[in-house]
User: Which sequence fits this backbone?
């Protein structure tokens, strides 16, 4: 039995859950999210709790049991609180500028890089520090994926530490070349 899958998910006040045969829709103050229920998984609502159960013991069904429960819990948290990833841009001349749903990055290439945020994701800059990008939204997967795509443009390098990193991420530094004797 999946340790994560067998735990019930509590429905927070202000959130409504609609369960059909093939999908589950969660609506809250920040928006609504839906998820297609995978075959072999049953979802029930009992006394303000959502219970995820397996219909058979196939390997595929067992692997989707915990995934389904975790996805539903993330959907409920997303429509109530939302998700946020913060990215630091470190390096001389490295800059970012957010305008609407687009972010314009100057990262030492011969051209600026412009990226457009997917539906439901917003990009902003921290007003206190000029090199802190904030990616936020209600869908945990799309927020994390867009933040990872921004980071992928210029990963932090180990010698000078330049690049894009998550706020609080530790980058192991290496010593450079030593002088020949």
Assistant:
């Amino acid at each position: 039995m999946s340790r994560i899958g067998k735990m019930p998910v509590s429905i927070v006040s202000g959130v409504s859950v609609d369960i059909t045969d093939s999908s589950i829709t969660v609506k809250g103050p920040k928006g609504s999210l839906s998820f297609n229920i995978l075959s072999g998984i049953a979802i029930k609502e009992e006394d303000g709790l959502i219970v995820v159960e397996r219909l058979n013991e196939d390997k595929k069904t067992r692997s989707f049991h915990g995934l389904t429960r975790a996805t539903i819990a993330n959907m409920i948290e997303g429509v109530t609180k939302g998700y946020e990833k913060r990215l630091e841009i470190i390096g001389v001349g490295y800059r970012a500028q957010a305008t609407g749903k687009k972010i314009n990055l100057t990262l030492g290439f011969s051209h600026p890089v412009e990226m457009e945020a997917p539906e439901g994701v917003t990009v902003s800059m921290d007003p206190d520090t000029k090199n802190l990008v904030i990616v936020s939204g209600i869908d945990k997967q799309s927020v994390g994926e867009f933040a990872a795509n921004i980071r992928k443009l210029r990963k932090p390098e180990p010698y000078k530490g330049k690049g894009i990193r998550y706020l609080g991420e530790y980058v192991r530094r290496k010593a450079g070349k030593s002088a020949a004797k």
User: Anything to note?
Assistant: The mean pLDDT is 91.
